[in-house]
Structures are given as structure tokens and as C-alpha cells.
Amino acid sequence: MKAWIGLDIGTTNVKAIALNAHNELVAEASFACQTQHPKPHRMEQNPDAVYYLCVHALRQVTDQLRAKNTQVEAVSLCSAMHSVIALDAQNGLLTPAILWADNRSVFQANELKRSQLAKKLYVQTGIPAHPYAPATKMRWYQEKQPALFKRAARFVSQKEYVWFKWFGKWQIDYSLASGTALLDNRKLTWSASALAYAGISATQLSDVVPTYHVEYLRDAFVCQVLGLPNGTPFVIGAGDACLANLGSGALEKGITTLTIGTSGAVRQTTPTPVSDPLHRLFTYVLDETHYVSGGPTNNGGNVLEWLSQHLLKKEPAELLALAQTAPAGAEGLLFVPYLLGERAPIWNAEARGSYHNVAWQHQQAHFARATLEGVALNLNQIKTILEQRIAPTRVIHANGGFTRSDFWVQLIADVFGIPIKINETNESSCVGAILLAMKALGEVESLEAGVKKHVQFGKTFVPNTANIAFYRKQNKAFGKLILAKNQ
Predict the structure, then answer these.
(1) Given the DSSP bridges, would you call strands 255-260 and 395-399 parallel, antiparallel or unpaired?
(2) pTM for this one?
(3) In the 8-state DSSP scheme, what is residue 306?
(4) So what CATH class is 2-241?
(5) Residue 487 above 80 pLDDT?
(6) Nearest residue to 276 (alpha-carbon basis) of 159, 128, 80, 469
(7) How do the domains of the chain map onto residue ranges?
């Protein structure tokens, strides 16, 4: 028997899964990442600690496969996007990994947003001016830690750091590079204008390679540690946003993906890069003929976690049950979920959350429902922008932790007014990585053929017609509210 491994280097967990030729899950492993918050607005991880989680996850999976007498065909990588690590000339760590939600560069991002350069860089890179972008983080180092910035011989992401340890090469795939705000996403080369803004040269970045790029494991020690034979092919893979679209089967026009994990995102796949005149959408590269455009929210499942731990002091499952007892609209209570600032749709790292129209009759059930509705209404704003720039949505393919709650999925179907199909597995990014490897090594002729053969679905949620008109009004009210907050 043969199996393909997808390794997902996330910000919350490092996960690895193995699928056989019949699309059956035959091995899996997951380890939680430790995130530090040394100061307000900062979010960091230890690159070596994450690397060892990658090693442990792969080794657990290969041990499980060996026990089942299963051979590994290939390993393919997926990664969270937008992390930055500064290294010295000897490839030693100068900084921790600075994550996407780290907002230390908000001043630099706001300055860029107000400049004439912002439009030029957005057209080239497809990334809005925001502190989540590595380019603004590099600018922060240049301005706030000039001595360290001068010592930095290289800036890399967490996945590049892992890749180098296994293959001794500094390489970055098109997808991850497109999330740095430094890549010209049409030419697929580093943008001279973006490099100048960040104050770095192309030699301080990795070589850009296609997402199908393959390296073969040759280091005897690494082979032993990972439990893999010499010559095992590794496909460099892509960023989690692109692979979530691929792994959820959303390559056709009119299919939109919705992912809600810690954060969330709404995305569509297009054959060419998409640009938004108001800079509200990102565009990432999957390959030369597949681009993923959409909007990410900072505030997804973490909002439910906040409600659980800091406000209502109840377990998430209890809050979901409580929310079901409140009517649609929570009797006028509206929630803006910007607890961590926000990316799409407003791209304002300094935005803050708030409850509106709080009245005497509102109880815990109303707050629970309004909180979930706020997340859904915000995501629907992103979907609307996406449809204006690309195509109307006929179906949503959904994945992420929220799909474990039928109530939450049904609520979003009602708010969106569109059917939601649940992917059979919540590991869509890992599935996407495996499909990319299958294409790279000739197992499937195209990504579309791989999706048709290997992507499977569970339940479909149809909007409740009684709620569609009501939530249409709620969406308008929410849109006016966030517009007023962002002025």
C-alpha cells in the first residue's frame, strides 16, 4: 500500500495526515504550537520549537505507516502565511518568528496606506497595506531596531526555515512569496519597488520556486529522524489559504470557500490575478493558472473563545447551545467582532469590537447569538466584495472547526443566503498539499482532475427561507455600522 503525506505548519497546530490511493485517512498526528505575547500587539513563536513539532508530527505519521506496511509516495508542505524570521550571516536566529496577527508595524502600515506608493505596491503584489504583511514588519525592524536590521542577512518564513534544515536550500514557493507583499504576482519575481520599501535586497530573500518544486531527501540523519527512506520526494507546496481552496474543491467559477478556525477567510479561485480599487482583497498565487483572491478576518473562532473565557465564562459548547435559544437578530443586539483589529473588509489594525443596541431584555443567550452573528455578518461583507470583483457565489464549500456545530453552519447559511457544503475532512489544507504533490509527481493530470477524484463532501446546509430576508436587512445595518466605525 502507498500513501501521501500532507504536513501543515499552522500557527495553532502542526499537523500531518496520510491518505492512501483510496482517499482513506491512514495516519495522522497533531501538536499544539506555543505562542508568546511579550508585549501588547505582538505575537511570536520559537522557530526551532515549531521545527521540532514538524519533525515529531512527521515521525509519528511515518511510524504509523510503517506499522501498516505502507510506503510513503511523497511529503508535501502547507504553511500559515506572513511569518517573518530574521537570520544572521551564519543562518542563526536574530528574532523569533513574527506571526500574521502581530500588529507591531501598524504605524508603518498606516503610513504606507496614506502614501502614493500604496496603490503601486497593491497592483503589483495584491496585498493591502496592513501590519500582517511581512514587508511592513521588515520596515518596522529597519526603523525601530536598525542595529538588528543591519545584521540581518536574510528574512524567511517558518516554512522556509524548516525546508532549509531538511534540504540546505533557501527556497520559497510562489504562494508563500505572494503573501509577503514583496512579490510581483504577475511576473512571479521579487518586486523592486517593494524591496526598496522594505529596505532589503533580493539576496536577503529565498529563491522563488513553483509550488510543484520537488527536492529529494538525501541527508542520512534527517532520513533517520523522520523515519523516511533516502530519496523520498518532498514537494514544497503552498500557503494555507491557497491549499484550503484546492483541498476544499473550490477551483470553479461560482464556488466560494469559507474557512473558520482561529481566524477566518472567504476566497474564490481565478485564472488570473484580481485587483480591487479599494484594496479590500488579497490575491495569492497557487500556480501560473490558479490565483486565490479573498479577504481574511482576524476574528473567527477566537471570538467564541473570547466570549467563553473572558465574558460569559461558559464552555464553547454551552455557548452554542445557549445561542440557539435566542431569536434571529438577538432582539436588536448587534456585535462588531473586531477584537484583534481587522483585515478584511476594513483593513484597520486599530479597529475594536463593540456591542450595539444593548437593552434591559438582553440576556446571556442574546449576547451569545449576537456574537456568532457578528462573525457571520462580517464574513458576509467580505463575500459581497468578492462577488463584486469576481463572480456571484452559487455554493459555499466550508471547512474549519466551526463545521462541527450544525447550528453555527446553518446560521451562516442563513446570513449568506447560499447553500453550504461541508468538506468531509476539516484538513482541507493538508488535502490540498497532497493534491499538489500528486500533480507534481504525475499521479493526476491536473488539479481539477485531482479535486474530482479525491475531494469529498458531507452534509449540505440550505438557507432557511424565513431568515433570508431578515438577515439581508441585518447585513445592511452591519455594513453601515462598520463603515461609521472606520471613518
Answers:
(1) parallel
(2) 0.95
(3) H
(4) alpha beta
(5) no
(6) 128
(7) 2-241
Q: Provide the grid cell at 24.
A: 482513506
**Are the C-beta atoms of residues 176 and 182 closer than 8 Å to each other?**
no
Amino acid making up residue 295: G
Q: Which helix (H) or strand (E) holds 379?
A: helix 364-389
In the three-class reduction of DSSP (H, G, I as helix; E, B as strand; rest coil), residue 47 is classed as: helix
- The span from the CA of 356 to the CA of 144, in Å, is 38
Q: What is the DSSP string of 226-246?
A: HT--TT-EEEEEEEHHHHHHH
Strand partners, 208: 172
Give residue-wise pLDDT tens across range 45-57: 999 999 999 999 9
> Could you give the C-alpha distances from 96 to 22, 141, 146, 153, 181, in angstroms and in order?
40, 13, 17, 15, 20
Q: What is the pLDDT of residues 365-404, one digit of tens each?
A: 999 999 999 999 999 999 999 999 999 999 999 998 899 9
Cis-peptide into 345, omega within 30 deg: yes
Look at residues 281, 274, 284, 277 and name the one whose alpha carbon lies nearest to residue 296.
281
Residue the block writes with cell 501543515: 8
C-alpha cell at 251: 477551483
Q: What nine digits make up the cell of 29?
A: 498526528
